[in-house]
Amino acid sequence: MEISTDSIKELREKCGAGIMDCRAALIETQGDLGKAAELLKERGCAKAAKKADRTTANGLVETYIHTGGRIGAMVELNCETDFVARTEEFKHLARDIAMQIAAMNPSYILADQIPAGFEIPEGEVISLMDQSFIKDPSKTIKDLIVDVIARTGENVRVNRFSRFEIGVYTE
Fold it and tell me: From its phi and psi, is residue 111 left (phi > 0), alpha (psi between -120 and 50) or beta?
């Protein structure tokens, strides 16, 4: 089957995957853009799982101060190399995660860090990775990170975060 360069370009813009990966996905799905996008997403998750054990000794600390200066957040986002840490995509991800922390006030990074027997208020998601992204509720924070892992080829993880709000004291 012949795949047009316009189809490859459209899929690449939608998913951010490499040209050859987009071409292969389109061939495998007989040119169906929707199915090809899903296939690339699945492959991205598989790539992320393979990279999960790799050391993340580089990265950056990003902050977000909400309008009015009453709420702020700081996040340490790590990756494998300083090359990726300096990319605009990585910086943008860190900024979005800091904004998410300021807006949604998660208590933990991962759900498995929640202590046994801890009462979670009904309807609340207190682990950052499981929260719906405030800019696109169809994605979770984990989905955002997996997308960046698939595009950069490096492991990315949130190491720690802190949130501050005027008049609210937490230990």
Answer: alpha
Q: What is the pLDDT of residues 104-163, one digit of tens each?
A: 999 999 999 999 888 888 888 999 999 999 999 999 999 999 889 888 888 999 999 999
| Per-residue tokens: 168 | 């609210």
pLDDT band at residue 46, thresholds of 50, 70 and 90? Answer: low
Of 141, 56, 58, 146, residue with least CA distance to 98 = 141
Which DSSP helix (H) or strand (E) runs through 151? helix 141-152
119 phi/psi in degrees, rounded to 5:
-80, 115
CB 129 within 8 A of CB 158: yes
Instruction: Tell me how far apart the alpha carbons of residues 22 and 40 are, in angstroms, rounded to a whole number.
Output: 8
How far does the chain reach from its first CA to its final CA, in angstroms?
Answer: 61
Residue identified by tokens 């950052």 is 128
- φ, ψ for residue 71 (rounded to 5)? -135, 135
Q: How far apart are CA 66 and CA 128, in angstroms?
A: 18
pTM to 2 decimals? 0.74
